[in-house]
Amino acid sequence: MFQRVWGAKVQRGGKAATRSLRAAPPPLILLVSAGFFASSILPAQWAVRDLRPAAAVAVRFVVATALVGLALAVAAWRRTAAMGAAAGAEMLGGASGASGASGASAGAAAGPVTSGGQKVLTRLLVTGSVLAGGVNTVGFVLQNSALDRAEAGTVAFLSSMSVVVVPVLLALVSRHWPAGRRIAGVALAVAGSFVLTGAELDLGAGEALALLSAVGGSLHVMATSHFAPLLRGPWFNLGQLGVVALLASLTTAVVGVGAVTWPALLAAGYTGVAQAVGLSLQVMAQRRLDGGQAVMILTTIPVMTTVAAWLVVGDPLTAAVVGGGVLIVAGVAVSECGAPLWPPGRIASSFPNSFPARFSARSPSRHPCPPNPVFPLSQPTSGPAAPAALDAPVALAGEE
């Protein structure tokens, strides 16, 4: 009896937390996500003291994949139990056979359409998971390789250049420059990151690898913005986490594990927990944010990491560190001060005509589907919507 009551309370609390997250402004959700990513920086550094970089990444993403998979399994079990309870109550209530027969015939009629829509969703899920997971793996491997060849501050600064790469890539694809406030915010964030990290601009092999890792991170942000509105967030999370875990594990099998110690495993395990929660929140937020908005907000990670290092290991807060953090926060504020906290509900509609409407927009009354795609990668370069391509937020497709 106690277990049932406690389980019901936990379930109600989880549903309330989920509703609160869905009702929160997307920038706030992404800020919380950035906090989880920032909390994993120090443990990641502790893990690579003993483990090889590829092994640390493998442990991180295997743990994250297991956690997301477990959460999905529990959710599926609860849904199945609830459906079974509802069916039992209907039988005990004496549901008429005629209504059951009509429902079965209706389900049979809708079967082929649902099957076709599910095939499209499966292809999208596989494509999105492979693309997002692949570029994320490349970014992590390049960044870890750069840390072996260059100063940590320089690598941190060059890796944060995603804030420049994403707007440039979006501008090249859509053939429209971002708004002036976005450009000013990027300039402030770059200057703040340079001051905060104390980077040195002597371009060598390590610095080149760090810049390439920034490109990988940028492509991951853009892939997430493109596929997140089209897919169910938890399954998209599981797919891309699984791809990174597989690729990192294969790399570890080739290059070796390193020294396996409990401190290193615990540190790497925590990074997996932070990755699972942080990526889940990031995907949830990027269903309603474009890539430019997302990468600007994620530039707060170095600031949060600096604060965490000050609190945990006592790193000094110098004037340069404080000034750089202020510049980064100011850049985010300038970039997003004119952006809507609650973007209109729109979703990219690059589906076949036979794609079921209930899959392309699961909440049509709250999030109507526009006739043209709104994501910059598929935005037409002419017409009334084109000038706002870089500022048009990706819409929420509707979480289940």
Automatic annotation (TrEMBL):
Domain EamA residue range list: 206-334
Membrane topology: Multi-pass membrane protein
Keyword Transmembrane: yes
A single GO cellular-component term on record: plasma membrane
Pfam families: EamA
InterPro entries named in the record: Diverse_Substrate_Transporter, EamA_dom, EmrE-like
Keywords: Cell membrane, Membrane, Transmembrane, Transmembrane helix
Disordered: region residues: 360-390
Subcellular location: Cell membrane
Superkingdom of origin: Bacteria
Annotated transmembrane regions: 28-48, 54-77, 124-142, 154-173, 180-199, 205-223, 235-258, 295-313, 319-342
The keyword Transmembrane belongs to this UniProt entry's keyword annotation: yes
Family per record: Belongs to the EamA transporter family.
Name by which UniProt lists this protein: EamA-like transporter family protein
Source organism per UniProt: Parafrankia irregularis
